[in-house]
Amino acid sequence: MVTKIYCLPGTMCDERLWSFTQNTLGESLHLQHVPIPMEETIEAIVDVLAEILPESPINLLGFSMGGYLVCAFALKYPERVKRLMVLSNTASGLLATEQQQREVALNWVLKQGYNGIPKKKAAAMLGQANKDKSELVDIIFAMDKALGEAVFIQQLKSSLVRPDQLLILEEVKFPLCFAVGSEDPLLSSAVLAKMKSSKCFDVKTVDNCGHMLPLEQPALLADLLKEFYL
C-alpha cells in the first residue's frame, strides 16, 4: 500500500523540488505536488486549498513558504490533517531582514520587470558544501524560470504579512514535525532554539544543508519521511 503525502512547495518552486527525494523513497511513499494557489493573501490561499485537498484526514508536507501555508491550513482545518511535517520554515513571522528584502525585490520587479533569480541569491540558499553543485543551482534556476514574473509577484505579495503561528501550533492534536537545515540562512536561530527547548515541537536538524533541504539532502529527508509517515 502506497502512503500519499500532499506537498506544498516554497516560493518559485515546482514539482522538481521533490524529484530527488521521491527517487530515493521508491514506492512506499508518494509525494503529491500541490502548486501554491494564485491568490493575494494567505487566507485566500488556504480557502482554495480547502477546496482542492481531500476532506478526509491527509498527510501534509510543506517546504519554506509552503510550510507556513500547510500550518495555516492545519490550524483552520485540524480535523482534515493526519500528520504534518514542515521543512525549512518555523511557522513564525518573517525575519525583519527577509521582509525588507522581499519588499525591495517586489518594488524592483513592479518597476523594472523580473529577470529571474540572481545566481548569488540561488547559491546563498544552499549549504556551504552544496554552493558549487551546478545541478542544484540549475534546478533552482529552471523552477524559477518556469513559474515566471506573475507567480513571483503573487507569491511575494501574498506572503509579506505572516502572523506568527507557533503559539497556536503548540495546542494541535495531530503529529507535527519540523525539519531544518543546519546552515539555513533564512531561519531565526533564536526561534529555533525556543522551539527545540519546547516539549510541544519535534525539531529535526539536517547537517550539511542550507535552505533547500529536499534538493540538498534527499536521502536524509527520505529517511525522516519514512520514520514520520509510515
UniProtKB/TrEMBL annotation:
Gene3D superfamilies per record: alpha/beta hydrolase
GO cellular component: membrane
Sorted UniProt keywords: Hydrolase
UniProt domain AB hydrolase-1: residue ranges: 41-216
Protein name (record): Pimeloyl-ACP methyl ester carboxylesterase
Organism: Marinomonas polaris DSM 16579
Pfam families: Abhydrolase_1
InterPro entries: AB_hydrolase_1, AB_hydrolase_fold, AB_hydrolase_sf
Lineage: Bacteria, Pseudomonadati, Pseudomonadota, Gammaproteobacteria, Oceanospirillales
Record GO terms (molecular function): hydrolase activity
Record-linked SUPFAM superfamilies: alpha/beta-Hydrolases (SSF53474)
